[in-house]
From TrEMBL:
SMART domains: ANX (SM00335)
Domain notes: A pair of annexin repeats may form one binding site for calcium and phospholipid.
Keyword Cell cycle listed: no
PANTHER family in the record: ANNEXIN (PTHR10502), ANNEXIN B11 (PTHR10502:SF102)
Family: Belongs to the annexin family.
Cellular component per GO, a single term: vesicle membrane
Gene3D superfamilies on file: Annexin
Gly residues compositional bias, start-end: 134-178
Residue segments, region Disordered: 1-200
Keywords from the named record: Annexin, Calcium, Calcium/phospholipid-binding, Repeat
Matching InterPro entries: Annexin, Annexin_repeat, Annexin_repeat_CS, Annexin_sf
Organism (species): Drosophila suzukii
GO molecular function, one term: calcium-dependent phospholipid binding
Gene assigned in the entry: AnxB11
Protein name in UniProt: Annexin
Length: 508
């Protein structure tokens, strides 16, 4: 849930199956890049895994090697950065990602050409989450040899290969041989955002305009909305840095002194780096007496491995506590086990599907729930927290074919309380994530009063990922536009700021 938006947005991963060709997206949205080394909470610098091409046949072909060195930072280091467009993420390394015999000599490594769109620069001290199946783009072939040679060589893809008769190759491409190969597609936005990078962006100009809007008597709230709500999270971090450089003042502190109420809360949330915003929401949900389980569900049940891993590291840096330990101390029973499973960030995200395995898992869910007295919660937990989204869609369909009703109905029958809500959140995110977040927006405004914290959180976190799709789903589900609901539940500058974030024109 993505990584979180174009300035930061939840990844689905490159499917390697011909049955489900759904391209991956970047964590936290299309433009997110990890924090730079100076203030980085992340593990020490390790270069991204190299992918090499290796031939074993008598007829040698030239090596084609590719690696992911860091491109120069567009701006000087800052504490919380957020990206450029459409990165393509390398795969998570395992403890020994490639056999040692496939590593090229050092002098060959020095000749490799950089991939300019890599979001994991080696000079910024960032190490991706060590989880299996991350969307790095890899492929395999099941033909009898790949490549352009006469032997059992391998394709000229952006990766390495190895040939042993039936051989297989890994990389962002495949050979021109007779074998059938699968490949991953470039990273893309999960949906259609309503906040996109401003054209002709000038952080210095924005910093001066913001200072002018708050200097002297009164505040020009419309200017604040026009700048803050129409920039991506990345761009907001850039003009905040320029603001502090030029005026020696902290922009967030100035915003707090010049605004109030929900309008202040919304602007401050927008100005925070998106990962810090998620961490603050989780911390607030567990602080004090009681726990807001809905916040924990909304965040942990909807985000990708990379996003959860990044949040865990930043949470430790900001609050000096491990997120998993905090979750265990604030929850109990099956709900605690569900959140612990999600917090490990170990879901398979390969995108591969297996129809036979889907049937078996559907049968196991049926036996663990409706076909027995009581419920085997661990089976639901294992399957819904471990299988990739494409496989889960197939499992849900098989379950419906077997029983004549949806798995969601079975979950409501077999479970109750927070664990039921968590499992249903996973089910709905797999089947239609836009509808899930549309329901969250509706719940924040339905009935007496408005849950402004929830409304602000959903709009901030989804505006750079898929808010346009959420608006369409909202109107389809509830018969009225999201704008009309916002108009009925909010007012003043707060309302106009929300309009800007959801891509609506200002109205009186």
């Amino acid at each position: 849930m993505y990584p979180f938006g174009s300035g930061s947005g939840m990844p689905s991963y490159p499917p390697t199956s011909t049955n489900h060709q759904e391209p991956p997206r970047a964590p936290f949205g299309a433009g997110w890049v990890p924090p730079m080394q100076q203030n980085s909470p992340y593990p020490p610098s390790q270069p991204s895994p190299q992918m090499y091409q290796h031939h074993h046949h008598h007829q040698h072909q030239p090596h084609q090697q590719q690696h992911y060195p860091g491109a120069p930072a567009p701006y000087p280091p800052m504490s919380a950065p957020y990206p450029t467009a459409n990165p393509s993420y390398p795969p998570y390394p395992s403890s020994n990602p490639y056999p040692s015999q496939f590593a090229p000599p050092l002098h060959q490594q020095q000749q490799q050409q950089p991939v300019s769109n890599s979001p994991y620069p080696t000079d910024r001290g960032y190490t991706p989450a060590m989880t299996a199946g991350y969307d790095g783009g890899y492929g395999y072939g099941n033909g009898q040899g790949h490549g352009q040679g006469q032997g059992h060589g391998h394709g000229q893809g952006q990766g390495y290969g190895q040939g042993h008769g039936h051989g297989h190759g890994h990389g962002q491409g495949y050979g021109n041989g007779q074998g059938q190969a699968h490949r991953s597609l470039p990273a893309h936005r999960e949906g259609t955002p309503t906040v996109v990078p401003a054209q002709g962006f000038d952080p210095v100009k924005d910093a001066h305009a913001l200072r002018k809007a708050m200097k002297g008597f009164g505040t020009d709230e419309d200017a604040l909305i026009e700048i803050i709500c129409r920039r991506t999270n990345e761009q907001r971090q850039e003009f905040q840095r320029q603001y502090k450089t030029h005026f020696g003042k902290d922009l967030i502190e100035d915003i707090k002194s010049e605004t109030s109420g929900n309008f202040e809360k919304l602007l401050v949330g927008l100005l925070r780096p998106i990962v810090d915003f998620y961490c603050a929401e989780l911390n607030d949900a567990m602080a004090g007496l009681g726990t807001d389980e809905e916040v924990l569900i909304e965040i942990l049940c909807t985000l990708s491995n990379m996003e959860i891993y990044t949040i865990k590291n930043q949470y430790l840096r900001l609050y000096g506590a491990h997120l998993e330990s905090e979750l265990k101390s604030e929850t109990s029973g099956n709900f605690k086990r569900l959140l612990t499973s999600l917090c490990t960030a170990a879901r398979d995200e390969s995108g591969r599907v297996d129809p036979n395995a889907a049937k078996n898992d559907a049968r196991e869910l049926l036996k663990a729930g409706e076909l027995r007295v009581g419920t085997d919660e661990s089976m639901f937990n294992m399957i819904l927290c471990q299988r990739n989204y494409q496989q889960l869609k197939m499992i849900f369909q098989e379950y419906e074919n077997m029983t004549g009703h949806s798995l969601e109905k079975a979950i409501k029958k077999e479970f109750s309380g927070d664990v039921m809500e968590g499992l249903i959140a996973i089910y709905r995110c797999v089947t239609n994530k836009a509808e899930y977040f549309a329901s969250r927006l509706h719940k924040s405004m339905a009935g007496i009063g408005t849950n402004d914290t929830q409304l602000i959180r959903v709009i901030i976190t989804r505006s750079e990922i898929d808010m346009t799709d959420i608006k369409v789903a909202f109107e389809r589900l509830y018969g009225k536009s999201l704008k009309s609901w916002i108009k009925g539940d909010t007012s003043g500058h707060y309302k106009h700021a929300l309009y800007a974030l959801v891509g609506e024109q200002r109205s009186s």
